[in-house]
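W.,

You were right to be curious about this one. When I first looked at the sequence I had no strong expectations either way, so I just let the prediction run and decided to look at it fresh. Below is the sequence, 194 residues in total, followed by the output.
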Amino acid sequence: MRAALSRHRRLLAALFAAASAALALTATRPHPRGVRVLVAARDLTAGTVLGRGDVAVRVLPAGAVPAGMVRTATGRALSSPVRRGEPLTDVRLRRGGLLEPDDPAAVAVPVRLADAAAVRLLHGGDHVDVLAARADAPLPARTVAPGVPVIAVPKPDPSTDEGALIVVQATREQAAALARAAVDSRLSVTILST
């Protein structure tokens, strides 16, 4: 028997190698009963309004599909950051518009900051103190809207040299204070740790 095994050792080794390669290929094929889900095509920040290039389709085994999967995501804004390949669920997307519906007193307020370069440091989901300083008065800068979340950072308009725009979520009283400050002051922000 030992002699027979010795003669066929190479043949047996080739058969075992072919069998393990076939099993490996079977394991990597998509499961025929998989579920198509929407995932982030790349790392995305909070506040990003999803476009076609931001979303991809993947097939996951039925047991790996998280609850709350969404069927459409294009045009909706992210409520928090997501990583590339992460399934998009209802808790990752805002329900409608820029504001979350759980705070009916909140308003979205466009704020033009004096320093356009500072806006490049901001992302949706950051929290900032909005400051106002008058150029014609020796008074220190004052905090107009403390701890407000940035909900959008529109692309800067290259045709203007008047700073850059961000959108924050604020109360109506903070919105009125921001409007008053924008009339006679230069606005800036302090970025807070979250």
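Here's what jumped out at me. The mean pLDDT is 82. And, maybe more interesting for your project: The two ends are 72 Å apart (CA to CA).

Coffee later to discuss?

I.
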